[in-house]
From TrEMBL:
Name of protein: Serine/threonine-protein kinase cst-1
SMART domains: S_TKc
Catalytic activity: L-threonyl-[protein] + ATP = O-phospho-L-threonyl-[protein] + ADP + H(+); L-seryl-[protein] + ATP = O-phospho-L-seryl-[protein] + ADP + H(+)
Physiological role: Serine/threonine-protein kinase which extends lifespan and delays tissue aging, probably by activating daf-16.
Membrane-crossing segments per the record: none
Matching InterPro entries: Kinase-like_dom_sf, Mst1_2_SARAH_domain, p53_tetramer_sf, Prot_kinase_dom, Protein_kinase_ATP_BS, SARAH_dom, STE20/SPS1-PAK
Amino acid sequence: MTETFDRLTEASLAQNMDNILEILCKIGKGSYGCVYKAKHRETGQLLAIKQIPVESDLQEIVKEISIMKQCDSPHIVKYFGSYFKDSDLWIVMEYCGAGSVSDIMKLRGKILNEQEIAVILKYTLKGLQYLHLCSKIHRDIKAGNILLTNDGHAKLADFGVAGQLTDTMAKRNTMIGTPFWMAPEVIQEIGHGVLADIWSLGITTIEIAEGKPPYSDIHPMRAIFMIPSRPPPTFKDMSRWTPTLNDFVSKCLVKNPDARSTATELLNHEFIRNAKDISVLRQMIDEVREIQERQKTTLPSNTTTFHNGILTERPFVNDGTLTNKNQEETIVPKHQQQTFINTNTNRQDTETDTFQSSSCNTMIELSSESSDTMIINENGTETENDADSQQETLKITNKQQVTNIKIPYSNQSSKRPTTDRTKEDFMKLIAQEVRAYNKNEDDFQHTVEQFSVEQIEQRLALLDEIMEIELKEVQNRFQSKRKPILDAIKLKKQNQNHH
């Protein structure tokens, strides 16, 4: 059927799209909106449709569409067209029936073996090679953005934060991506190129092999401190994996991007050259289908599978970050309690593997509380797609461990301010320290020993409040940018109605 349907024609777009496409069910959520499974009525071909509210950042949406239209590769999710309906933008894309690698891991409740990892990485690298040769950066590579077809072909998806390199701007200076997968140069905002995707691929390899990326048990803001200042992460138990896989990860996770391997070079790596055929993945995909069918038939009688009038294809899967409370941690993210239908996928020990859901994918299940893509602007402020994630707070569980944290030196008074105004000024000062620390990881001449315990505790206690202030500033700037866009859309619609 694919040969008979390559795109939505101008003629079809002029018609009522309900007569062209049939929405079947809601399958998830992307970086800017909900995603539905649909069928092209004439050919019967299955499609994925992303519904994006007009209130979303139209500039980013247009960028995503532009990048998808330019891509013509079997390793990139295909774009078929887009249209407006009920004040929403609907983007029609290729449907990948097996879902994301992250979905598959959660549904099976276990990690992938080396053969499966090698096949997925091979085709992911082919997608990256294509993008990079076209001077495009994906900037959000992770298991949740690698989709599998029912045949086992891996494809890159979700270009919500992808960037186009140009002759005049060869490198990006904005911090965009999902925190745990970010390359050091992205966090430091020193400009980054296509090799930032390679670092993210290395983190994704660890994610697929261990069930979650490094640092995922701690608050994203603290992870942003740690990634540039600590040595590149490795597998927790390197002896569990072959030397070739360990070497592959080490080639990806090189802090100096100039010394990092390219996608083309990694395709020639021994671990990738020895990858099996995609048939290796078919057993895994069949297992996922069986689990989905079994879950559908065992749903409680009082549980609805409809959401806003649309059938939900997959039962809810717990996508919350799991924290091992037995371990002593300095800072622990707090998450809201949720009730899920399928409770046995939160953590499942198998004979050989232990999988932990890491709450980190962009294509999320309906009930998930994910670590969505984070965008940190030039002035150091951050925004997150998930409003709930903005409410996370830091919890100091072991004050003795605080003295091991390094933060920049300040000559300001160590006394905690008492008035709201002086407190706000103090928090802005700490925010400047945070940004300065991120931009210069090698400046360790002013270490934590120069602070009193009181100073350290004050700064840690204020980090959440700093984040809230900066988030409000970002929200205000966003509203000011969005208003003229919405006004222009409204004016164009009025002019169309007059004609």
